[in-house]
Amino acid sequence: DIQMTQSPSTLSASVGDRVTITCRASQNISDWLAWYQQKPGKAPNLLIYKASGLESGVPSRFSGSGSGTEFTLTISSLQPDDFATYYCRQYSSYASTFGQGTKLEIK
Amino acid sequence: EVQLLESGGGLVQPGGSLRLSCAASGFTFSSYVMNWVRQAPGKGLEWVSAISASGASTYYADSAKGRFTISRDNSQNTVSLQMNSLRVEDTALYYCAYGNGYWGQGTLVTVSS
Q1: Contact B37, B104 (CB under 8 A)
Q2: For residue A63, how far is the Cα from the chain centroid?
Q3: Minimal Cα distance from A43: which residue of B?
Q4: Per-residue pLDDT tens listing for chain A (107 residues)
Q5: Distance from CA of B60 to the nearest CA of A (A)
Q6: Which residues contact B33 (CB under 8 A, 6 or more apart)?
Q7: Are the beta carbons of A38 and B45 separated by less than 8 Å?
Q8: What is the pLDDT of residue A39?
Q9: From start to end of chain A, where are the E strands?
């Protein structure tokens, strides 16, 4: 099974900051990686697909990069609505796996 | 509009069984792999199981192998998860999902004596 290691687990930042979350795959997954945002009591919301594709309706301050085993999600200028938990997910095979999550907190 | 509506959750004792269902609409159900993903209270997302578009192939997380069975009915646009030998650690909100961006609202499974 492919393991996804996401870091950091918690990130404290301020409105306007640029933040980066990293996800590392235990083996090559090409660009079969998605990023989600989840808020309490809600289903996850897709931000990025295929490592760098911006989902329709998602603000352009969100961007994804990487391929193979190293991936990043960057938020260029944090907005108040962005404080949430973020997950990566690999879907290179039917047996998908998620990262452990990154809770983005207000500093 | 895509809709995924889960049902069947509830309170069950350890060792018991439960069958979850997901009714899908708004897309060509028979063309897509369907997934179950769960989230224990206060914890992260865990992929549980997937079934191919035809239903011929099924896939399970190690935590579900041998206890859970996924199935689908393409004539009824439904996917199900039969869960047997339930454990306290199976307590979670269970989501039905397809593609990357389509999720239901989840059905809560609580395993407790």
Answers
A1: no
A2: 9
A3: B105
A4: 899 999 999 999 999 999 999 999 999 999 999 999 999 999 999 999 999 999 999 999 999 999 999 999 999 999 999 999 999 999 999 999 999 999 999 88
A5: 7
A6: A94, B50, B51, B52, B53, B98
A7: yes
A8: 97
A9: 4-7, 10-13, 19-25, 33-38, 45-49, 53-54, 62-67, 70-75, 85-90, 97-98, 102-106
Q: Does A57 touch chain B (CB under 8 A)?
A: no
Q: Tokens at residue B69, please?
A: 């069975």
CA distances from A84 to A37, A69, B110 (A): 7, 24, 25
Q: Do the Cβ atoms of B44 and A89 come within 8 Å?
A: no
Total number of residues shown for chain B: 113
What is the residue whose two structure tokens read 């407790």?
Answer: B112
- Report d(CA B31, CA B55) in Å as an integer: 10
